[in-house]
Amino acid sequence: MIAEADEIPEGESRTYPYGDTVVAIFRRGGEFFAVDDICPHMGASLAGGYFDGTAVTCPWHAWRFCVANGTWLDNPKSPVRLRCHALRVENGKILIPPPPRNIADGD
Fold first, then answer.
1. Is residue 26 part of a domain?
2. Residue 61 covered by a domain
3. Which CATH number is 46's domain given?
4. Domain membership flag for residue 9
5. How many domains are there within the chain?
6. Considering the entire predicted model, what is its pTM?
7. Spatial CB neighbours of 50, under 8 Å, sequence gap ≥ 6
């Protein structure tokens, strides 16, 4: 379990530790979306950005990303994108599979 579903109000997001990074979980229309909480442009926390529909706007430089699929909305054909994480909600708990282990790190 990464979080309780009721910790995240409708239309908002929260951050949670996930392996060696932090994920931002967004809630819209009863759905939840999880992405790495780092803007690929300059590293800002996306959870602090403006969230509308499934788009989050980076608070530093206004780059916009889709939290449902990671697409950079300002340039959809670009390879720049957010890393999204599969999640499910069971009995009010948000579950995300554990992050992959890095064998090179000796895990």
1. yes
2. yes
3. 2.102.10.10
4. yes
5. 1
6. 0.90
7. 56, 57, 59
Counted residue by residue, the chain has a size of 107
Tens of pLDDT, residue by residue over 32-76, are 999 999 999 999 999 999 999 999 999 999 999 999 999 999 999
Residue 102 lies in a domain: no
As a whole number of Å, the end-to-end CA separation of the chain is 21
Q: What is the mean pLDDT of residues 2-20?
A: 95
Domain around 60 = 3-92
User: Which letter, b or e, does each residue of 38-66 get, where b requires 16 or more Cβ atoms within 10 Å of its Cβ?
Assistant: bbbeeebbbbebebeebbbbbeeeebbbb
What is the three-state SS of the chain? CCEEHHHCCCCCEEEEEECCEEEEEEEECCEEEEEECCCCCCCCCHHHCEEECCEEECCCCCCEEECCCCEECCCCCCCCECCEECCEEECCEEECCCCCCCHHHCC
For position 100, what pLDDT does the model report?
74
Tokens of 78: 């670009």
